[in-house]
Every structure is written in C-alpha cells, then in structure tokens.
Amino acid sequence: MTIVLDEPTTGTERHGLATDDERALLAWADAHPIAADKPEAENGRYKLPHPDTGADTAWTRVTTFIEALDDGQGLTIWKLGLTVRGLVHNDALYTQAKAEHDNDKALRAIAEEAHLWAGSKLSAAIGTALHLATEHHDLGTGHRPPDPWGAHVDAWAAALVDHGITVLPEWVESVVVNTAVGCAGTLDRLVMLPDGRIVVLDIKTGKDPKKATYAVQAGVYANASHAWSPTGYRALPDDLDRSTAVIAHLSATDATCTMLAVDAATGWERAQIVTQVREARRVRGLFTKLPTSGLVDRAIAEVRAAKADPDAAD
Fold first, then answer.
1. What's the predicted TM-score (pTM) here?
2. pLDDT at 12
C-alpha cells in the first residue's frame, strides 16, 4: 500500500499542520545538529554493557519506564481526535481509508499517517529543537535559532541568571544508566544551585510541567549509577543531590521559562512502585496448559497405529 502526501517534510517526520515559523525552527535544527555519541537502540531499548558485569544488556528507556503511571484513557481519546483531524485535512488519506475500510493492516498505516498529518509528533519535534537551541547556548557554539525562537533561548538564559543556576557543560545531554531499575536515558543537565548543590535539571516544553511521571523521571536520573560513553563508564558526581531536582518549563508557546523544584526523593520512591507495576503486568509464567487425563492422546495414538498397521487392529 502506498500513501502519497504532498506536505513539506522536515527530517524524517511529516508535520502537515506546522506553521511557517515552526518549519523554520525544525529546518534550523536539522541544519545545526550537535555531534553526540548515542548508544545503539533496539526495540525501544538501549543496548549497553552492564557497568558491573560487562554483559550486553537491553536497558528500558527512562521515558518508557515512567509510562506505567500514565492514564491511558486520555492518550486514547487524543489519538482518536488526531485520526479524525488528519483525515479531515488530507483528502488523499480520507479517500484511501474508504477504499481500504475492510483491511485492518492498511487502516492502521493510514491512521499513523493521519496522526502525523494532524501533528502527533509536531510538539515533540518543536520540543527537541528547543532543547537543541538551549544546548547550543550552554555550549557556546554561537548558533541561534531564527526568530521568533531566539526569544525562547533568551528566556532560558535569563532564568538561569535569575535563579543563580550554573550549567555544568561536561554533563550536558549525558546518557546515564540506573542499574537499580534497569533503565537508561539522557539527562538534560547537571547544574549547580546558588548554595553549591549539584542537581539534575530537566527541560520540559509541553503545556503542563507538573506531572507525577516527571518527578519519577527526575528520581531515576538523580539516582543513576553510571554515565555512559563509547570509551566506558564514569561515576556521577559524589556530591550529586539525590533529594531535589529542577524542572525548567520552557514554554513552546509564549517564550517564558519557569524553574520548578522537584521532590526527587519521593519520585525515586515512586519509581519502585513503577517497577512493581511493570512486573505485575508481565504474563510470562502466569499460565500453563492444564494437564489432561491422557484419554484423548491415547485414542489418537490408537487410531494412528491402526492406520499404520490395519492387520494389527484385527
């Protein structure tokens, strides 16, 4: 099945309803990547050696780990709306959906295209681009996104100054593993607060930065055991404060940046609950075939024997 869309693309994702300003930001991000070593990923997991044993290990992504706390109902409703919006805005998809209405596989593919057309990954792409813009700022590369997005970088820089927060450049966008819960992910920053404490800082660009999952994420990062690089692992700072973290809410809509303190200690406690929930969802080992009396198996065996040697049955 071939689906042809005529909207512009940026990178590998289609963002059919993106504005000109959004397309300009995404194009800038494509043109100004920052070289970084990333671990190999397979089936949504990072493949990294275990820091203690050296054995090849598949690590659950931190973003996947925290999804156990999400309410799936809201996500389902959101996806249904995206499907309808995408079909309404793209006649080719709508026509193809009518033609393939009895083909479940085709309909799933059409729904995914409709989601993309309706902007299912646009917000995430904008957020990733703004993350990149702040990274360029913190590393002093001199690259700045086009207007109006430069105002977001200015808001980020001003918030750091206003709160006396110092970014530790050597820990910008660091891949870390948490062996206690079997997770790996990329923490945005380690920063120093005015009182000298070193804490995890996570940048959020969505509408609501106050989510329980974000506190769990902060707790997992704050309790990470090792930082990965292609040349090996290194320990996180000994004086890393594991009780507190910071969320920088860099609004993608109004170019403001609000700093929020996060109770990372409670987030880490809830991470243990997430581990239990994920374990409780496992099916393996819960079901086995109920043993039979063997009468049916013996009857089948007798029939097969009789067919193989008709004289023996007499």
1. 0.80
2. 37
